[in-house]
Amino acid sequence: AQSVTQPDIHITVSEGASLELRCNYSYGATPYLFWYVQSPGQGLQLLLKYFSGDTLVQGIKGFEAEFKRSQSSFNLRKPSVHWSDAAEYFCAVKSNFGNEKLTFGTGTRLTIIP
Amino acid sequence: DTEVTQTPKHLVMGMTNKKSLKCEQHMGHRAMYWYKQKAKKPPELMFVYSYEKLSINESVPSRFSPECPNSSLLNLHLHALQPEDSALYLCASSPTGWEIGNTIYFGEGSWLTVV
């Protein structure tokens, strides 16, 4: 069964500093990987996704993520955070056999301090 | 346009009421989903419809009844709910469920409070 681990429950970063959110997955083959962001009281917005090819993927809002098969990781990065980036971030994995089930990690809450 | 529209945004209902949550998408997606999200938790899958047929039911209590009238609409009928059912209910859609690499797009959610 597929699973996702986000080891950091809460991260605090100063505005303008760099950010890295960790995500590790467990899956028997190359999975489809996603990062979603959820602002307070809102739905989930897709930041980026990885299916195949270049292991460094670019997303919206200046985010990027790198797929590392050897480490079973898909970490999210941003070089300089803005106060509006404060939100909950979810990593998710989906099988590549047509199964519609999307499995989420437990989420990382990002707080930005001035 | 990757928009999934949910109504109502907020719903308060008594334990004996019958109400419905509605979801609509016009992206031509043929898979639609209901997720439930409790505070400070990730979304949990409830139901999946693929080509208007129920393909996944994650052992959801029968007081939640999904319906997919056509490829653009998805309803969640609510009856005799419990206070612990209070949560954010998220609708989502994706291109044909069996296409490799399809992406799931979420709506803004419906906040449900059961009193």
Task: Summarize the structure in short.
The complex is a heterodimer of chains A (114) and B (115). With 114 residues, chain A is mostly beta strands. Helix content of chain A is 0%, strand content 51%.
Structure characterization notes:
Chain A has no helices and twelve strands. Chain A has 114 residues and is mainly beta. Chain B has 115 residues and is an all-beta fold. Chain B is 0% helix and 56% strand. In chain B, strands 2, 4, 5, 6, 9, 10 and 11 form a seven-stranded mixed sheet that branches. A four-stranded antiparallel sheet of chain B has the order 1-3-8-7, with no helix packed on it. In chain B, strand 7 and strand 8 form a beta hairpin. The model of chain B has no long low-confidence stretch (mean pLDDT 92).
Sequence of secondary-structure elements of chain A:
EEEEEEEEEEEE
Largest sheet of chain A: 6 strands, mixed
Radius of gyration of chain B: 13 Å
The dominant shape of chain A is globular
As a percent range, the share of strand residues of chain B is over 45%
* Sequence of secondary-structure elements of chain B: EEEEEEEEEEE
- DSSP strand tally of chain B: 11
Oligomeric state of shown chains: heterodimer
Structural class estimated from helices and strands of chain A: mainly beta
End-to-end Cα distance of chain B, whole Å, is 36 Å
- Sheet of most strands of chain B: 7 strands, mixed
Which spans of chain A of ≥5 residues are poorly predicted at pLDDT below 50? none
Structural class of chain B: mainly beta
What is the arithmetic mean of pLDDT of chain A? 92
- Per DSSP E runs of 2 or more residues, the count of β-strands of chain A stands at 12
As a percent range, the share of helical residues of chain A equals under 10%
Helix fraction of chain B?
A: under 10%
Most extensive protein-chain contact, per-chain counts: A-B, 23 and 30 residues
Alpha carbon gap, first and last residue of chain A:
41 Å
pLDDT under 50 segments of chain B (min length 5)? none
Strand content of chain A: over 45%
